Amino acid sequence: MKNRYGDEYNLVRVGENAYQVTGSLKYWRFGGRKGQNNIDLNNLGIADPSGGPCFYLGMKIMGRRVTRIKVDNIEPPVIILEVAI
Question: What pLDDT does residue 26 have?
Answer without folding.
Answer: 82
